[in-house]
Design a protein that fits this description.
By secondary structure, the protein is mostly beta strands. The protein is 0% helix and 45% strand. The chain is built from no helices and 16 strands. It has strands spanning 4-8, 17-18, 28-30, 42-47, 55-63, 69-70, 81-88, 96-100, 106-110, 116-120, 126-128, 136-143, 148-153, 156-162, 172-174, 185-195. The protein is globular and about 40 Å long. The chain starts with a strand and ends with a strand.
């Protein structure tokens, strides 16, 4: 668990929190508050943790209207880091899979043509061919010393690029842009973040 900042396996299958199993108490909140609301994603079937995508266990399903999860703060660091998660059924233009709430935060989002890209900072993103019907495991990394970003899908390197070398990490949102727009419709499971 060295360097582990947050791990949300979504296995509890109920409640208003996505429990952080890293030991760092970075619990995620479903929707805008600790109370049940229309912006809460629904608990759903996912993949078993560390199984390579074998069906089972819990996940969160987002409606693409107003559902999201706000993770604890801080999630990552201002240094090098990685973020990974299982994703299924998310497609469409101008939707977020994850994003912080300022431009220098990492994000995985689609453009107006529906192409998903991994960003760190407000620079050209790495294109990720997610597809929409099957589970896909995404990992994005950032090396602060070199500014190198890398993106992997199902363990295969899909692209690299150079980004900003000074970044600030603030609150991380799942399936929306700051809980206000870009809401994703699909299922997300096993979100994990590490610092180098």
């Amino acid at each position: 668990n060295k360097g582990l900042v947050g791990y949300w396996d979504m296995e509890q299958m109920g409640g208003q929190n996505a429990s952080d199993k890293s030991g760092n108490s970075n619990n995620g909140t479903l929707g805008a508050s600790a109370s049940v609301g229309s912006d809460d994603p629904k608990w759903a079937k996912g993949v078993q943790p560390f199984s390579g995508g074998k069906a089972g266990g819990g996940a969160l399903q987002f409606d693409g209207v107003n559902d999201y999860v706000r993770m604890g703060t801080p999630i990552l660091s201002t240094n090098s880091y990685s973020i990974g998660m299982w994703i299924k059924g998310i497609s469409g233009a101008n939707v977020m899979i994850f994003e912080g709430n300022i431009l220098s935060d990492p994000s995985l989002e689609s453009d107006g043509a529906g192409n998903f890209r991994f960003y760190v900072g407000n620079t050209a993103g790495i294109v990720i061919g997610l597809g929409s019907s099957n589970w896909r495991y995404f990992v994005g990394t950032f090396d602060k010393s070199s500014g190198l970003r890398t993106a992997y899908l199902n363990g295969i390197l899909v692209g690299t690029s150079t980004s900003v070398t000074s970044n600030t990490i603030s609150t991380l949102f799942i399936a929306s842009r700051s809980g206000c727009s870009g809401f994703a419709n699909g299922i997300i499971d096993d979100v994990l973040t590490r610092r180098a």
